[in-house]
Automatic annotation (TrEMBL):
It comes from Pyrus ussuriensis x Pyrus communis. GO terms for cellular component: exocyst. Residues 121-132 have a biased composition (Acidic residues). The keyword Protein transport applies. The keyword Protein transport applies. This is Exocyst subunit Exo70 family protein.
Length: 627
């Protein structure tokens, strides 16, 4: 082990002091205008050697007098003030903005929810807000600035799986020769007892660089209160940007700042590298995570679920990187904040799903939809749960308990029931989705009772349950969770509704085409009562015309379902009418004004059935009848 060098001689100390005083910026205009480290290397080395000699002399306790010690202490103070300026100047000269390509490539992965995070779900025809708490997400009216284009190249939106810290992309923020000079200065400032000054200078300059990166990424200085006062449409845009920016901040900006601190300060003093790192990034990190925290504690509503899940997935994805970058004891508060935000986002998602279920059950609209078509609530709910199924990986981790039925809605004495035994083996999320469908049907059944005509009430239920079935079939993820057994149960319900409609509408019409009551003596060999027959034709005509007039204005939106129901009607109506007409036409035609009783041919009825369920307005129907 080498012994320390001997203390400098008095001549060496005098020479060192002269060098220090030569660069005293408070005493010399030339010293104020020039920077030592901007000059020749030998000049830099002489100055550092002078500082070392004076510091070594002060440390050796071999000075002859207090005057000499005071003189050298004054020289060290001058030198530290000078080195502080030099430190700041080197940092400023070599602090350049991070290139946009470096920020945009912070996350090379693709998104799990491709296309979801950047688009609002299509909730067709549902009112923006009502007393139930159901609120339709609207397309964002806030246009994205060029920052989004800058970041889009490197990131789609989010993922829901952990990745290792290999996603961190550290950059060399300052050239190695400047790092060498900064480290030389830091060593001397810390040895002389000026670590706080060194930390403050470093933090003030590098924090400005971090702020510049934040601006490039579109991260605004918003308090939690500021965020909560923004309209949701504005927040949707900011959330999309935050997800991309957070990845760039943690994996590139913060990670690179940590690397620079280690390059300059590692091994100098006690945890100086960590102290300078936290001085630089603690404020920006809190600013970054405050946005997510504000979202996590904001008022819950259904349209917020998917952006909250996007935030949750993005933060979950970042957690290994956050733990890697903020791995010291002094940065524990940042790790804790991120974990707590993640927990609150998960709780918010669970709460929103629970409140959504309650809102679907108690959605209060009582005005029947015209024509018995699909209710806006049905479209809203099914589009909503279709999107929920796209987040099944995340939600399967967050939703761990099955839905509470019946007693949870204590304000509603009549609630649907669900037999969980029939759904054994399904995930809690799948049970929640099935439960939403159950309470949707329960609500729709209540709405169907507001129709005065039983036929349109059955048609309404057929339309809506059929729509539910089609939405489940149209989403592979949703179909997998719901399961084919329950899907068959739903299919049976809309087919039963179709059968009930036909009974309610056509039993009375077809009853007019029976033979009973037309024969005078009750024997088929006896004569036919022409008066009874005329009344029978008149009754049929009147009933069919009323059905045609009414049901041409009803609507079955699904083309295939509409055609299937028309065929089913024709298969019952046309043969019965043809047979009745064949048996009794001659009895009418032999009397007066047969056209008053036999108004339709079978072809006329076939054509009339084609008008059914088209959703014509009354005026359209009258125009068609007059043609």
């Amino acid at each position: 082990m080498e012994s320390p060098p001997p203390p400098p001689s008095l001549q060496e100390l005098d020479a060192a002091e002269k060098i220090i005083l030569l660069w005293d910026s408070t005493a010399s205009e030339e010293a104020r205008e020039r920077m030592i480290f901007d000059g020749q290397r030998d000049e830099v080395d002489r100055y550092l050697q002078a500082v070392d000699e004076i510091q070594r002399s002060l440390s050796s306790a071999t000075l002859a007098s207090e005057d000499d010690q005071s003189k050298l202490n004054s020289a060290i103070e001058i030198a530290m003030a000078r080195l502080e300026d030099e430190f700041r100047n080197i940092l400023l000269n070599h602090t350049t903005p991070i290139e946009p390509d470096s920020l945009s490539s912070a996350d090379p992965s693709s998104s799990t929810h491709s296309g979801i995070a950047d688009s609002s779900p299509e909730f067709e025809d549902y009112p923006a807000e009502d007393d139930s708490g159901l609120t339709t997400p609207k397309a964002s009216s806030v246009s994205a600035v060029d920052v989004d284009e800058l970041l889009q190249r490197g990131d789609s939106s989010n993922t829901s799986s952990y990745r290792s810290a290999s996603s961190i992309r550290e950059l060399d923020l300052i050239p190695s020769d400047a790092v060498f000079d900064l480290r030389n200065i830091a060593e001397r400032m810390i040895a002389a007892g000026y670590p706080r000054e060194c930390i403050q200078v470093y933090g003030s300059v590098r924090k400005g660089a971090v702020d510049s990166s934040f601006r490039k990424l579109g991260i605004e200085k918003l308090s939690i209160g500021d965020v909560q006062r923004l309209q949701w449409e504005q927040l949707e845009t900011k959330i999309r940007r935050w997800i991309r920016a957070a990845k760039a901040c943690v994996r590139t900006v913060f990670a690179s700042e940590k690397k620079l601190c280690e390059q300059i300060f590692n091994g100098i003093g006690t945890a100086m590298d960590d102290a300078c790192f936290m001085e630089t990034v603690k404020g920006p990190a809190i600013q970054l995570f405050n946005f997510a925290e504000a979202i996590s504690i904001s008022r819950r509503s259904p349209e917020k679920l998917f952006k909250i899940l996007d935030l949750h997935d993005a933060l979950m994805d970042l957690m290994p990187d956050i733990e890697s970058v903020f791995d010291s004891e002094s940065s524990e508060s940042i790790r804790i904040q991120a974990v707590e935000i993640l927990s609150r986002l998960a709780e918010a998602a669970r709460g929103i799903l629970s409140e959504f279920e309650n809102a679907v059950l108690r959605e209060p609209s009582r005005v029947p939809v015209p024509g018995g078509t699909i209710h806006p609530l049905t479209r809203y709910v099914m589009n909503y749960i279709s999107l929920i199924s796209d987040y099944k990986q995340t939600l399967n981790e967050l939703i761990v308990s099955k839905p509470s039925t019946g007693s949870r809605y204590s304000g509603d004495p009549t609630t649907p029931d669900m037999e969980f035994a029939e759904l054994e083996g399904k995930t809690p999320l799948a049970l929640h989705l099935i439960w939403i469908i159950v309470i949707l049907q329960f609500n729709l059944d209540g709405k169907s009772k507001h129709y005065k005509d039983a036929s349109i009430a059955h048609l309404f239920m057929m339309n809506n349950v059929h729509y539910i079935v089609q939405k489940v079939k149209g989403s592979p993820e949703l179909r997998e969770m719901i399961g084919d057994d329950y899907l068959r149960k739903l299919t049976g319900k809309f087919r039963q509704a179709a059968t009930s409609y036909q009974r309610a509408t056509w039993v009375g019409v077809l009853y007019c085409l029976r033979d009973e009551g037309l024969h005078v003596s009750g024997s088929f060999s006896s004569g036919v009562s022409k008066s009874a027959l005329r009344e029978r034709f008149k009754s049929f005509n009147a009933m069919f015309e009323e059905v045609h007039r009414t049901q041409a204005t009803w609507l079955i939106p699904d083309t295939q379902l509409r055609e299937e129901l028309r065929i089913s009607i024709s298969e019952k109506l046309i043969p019965a009418y043809r047979s009745f007409l064949g048996r009794f036409r001659s009895h009418i035609e032999s009397g007066k004004h047969p056209e008053n009783y036999i108004k339709y041919t079978t072809e006329d009825l076939e054509m009339a059935v084609l008008d059914f369920f088209e959703g014509y307005s009354v005026s359209q129907h009258l125009r068609r009848r007059s043609q």
